[in-house]
Design a protein that fits this description.
With 234 residues, the protein is an alpha/beta fold. The protein has a domain at 2-112 and 149-185 and 219-232: Rossmann fold (3-Layer(aba) Sandwich), CATH 3.40.50.880. 34% of the residues lie in helices and 24% in strands. The protein has eight helices and eleven strands. The protein has helices spanning 13-19, 22-32, 73-87, 97-105, 188-197, 199-202, 204-213, 220-232, and strands at 2-7, 38-43, 58-61, 91-95, 110-112, 118-126, 139-146, 148-150, 158-162, 170-173, 177-180. The chain has a nine-stranded mixed β-sheet with strand order 2-1-3-4-11-10-9-6-7, with helices on both faces. The protein has a two-stranded antiparallel sheet with strand order 5-8. β3, α3 and β4 form a beta-alpha-beta unit.
């Protein structure tokens, strides 16, 4: 399988030194769970796209500090490209910002969550025991970092995961689209870095509880196995 990763942020400082890019994090994640794929990474804030998506079996959209509903020219162009890919029924995965942007292109409302930041380890109800590696699953815990949310399930989509804080935390559309709000590619040091960066925004109570939650671990590799099976299936 050949994967196109549309990397929607440019990491800086510690994160760049330790992890290079969101795209690189995903490549390492899929390698850890045994995927034998080739992958190309394109930086959408820098205007990078493949000359054609035809040579790729699937496209993955990473997270971003940007808003999926932004009028920034590079985000507008990304929405245009994604809308075309959806019309072509290209297999796609969206994570965090990517999850929101795909939902927006499918007509769902997306915006700033009135309940504030989702941060640290968060647990979600799991609604899709029919998905690969999910037969006995009722919930899942992953690392999150977001202040925007998908407010309603897109038309034609099926809910995969939800919580009281984030009612549309994951969804699928047919056999083509798998979207998820939290970050399966994150390691605890990435979450800790972002929590420290946003400490004043979060307030001491949420900051402390979110930092403590990181010690409980997360199930990012389990989600990666689901994504691999989803993309390779059918």
């Amino acid at each position: 399988m050949k994967l196109c990763i549309l990397d929607n942020d440019i990491l800086e400082g510690h994160l760049a030194d330790q992890h290079a890019s969101f795209g690189a994090m995903f490549i390492r994640l899929f390698e850890r769970v045994g995927a034998r794929w080739t992958a190309d990474v394109f930086s959408t804030p820098r205007g990078q796209y493949p000359a054609s998506f035809d040579g790729y079996d699937a496209v993955l959209l990473t997270g971003s500090r940007a808003d999926s509903f932004s009028d920034d020219p590079w985000v507008v162009e990304l929405r245009r490209q994604v809308t075309q890919l959806l019309q072509q029924r290209k297999k796609m995965v969206g994570v965090c910002f990517g999850h929101q942007l795909i939902a927006l292109c499918l007509g769902a409302p997306v915006g700033r969550a009135p309940q504030g930041w989702g941060a640290g380890r968060m647990t979600y109800d799991w609604h899709r025991p029919d998905l690969p590696h999910s037969a006995d699953r009722t919930e899942i815990s992953l690392l999150a970092s977001h202040q925007d949310q998908v407010f309603e399930l897109p038309a034609g989509a099926t809910l995969v995961a939800s919580s009281a804080f984030c009612p549309v935390a994951s969804f699928t559309v047919g056999q083509e689209v798998f979207c998820i709000q939290p970050h399966p590619e994150f390691q605890e040091d990435v979450s800790a870095y972002l929590l420290n960066k946003r400490r004043d925004l979060l307030g001491e109570e949420q900051y402390a509880s979110s930092m403590e939650s990181l010690a409980l671990g997360h199930e990012g590799e389990h989600v990666a196995r689901m994504v691999v099976a989803f993309l390779e299936g059918g």
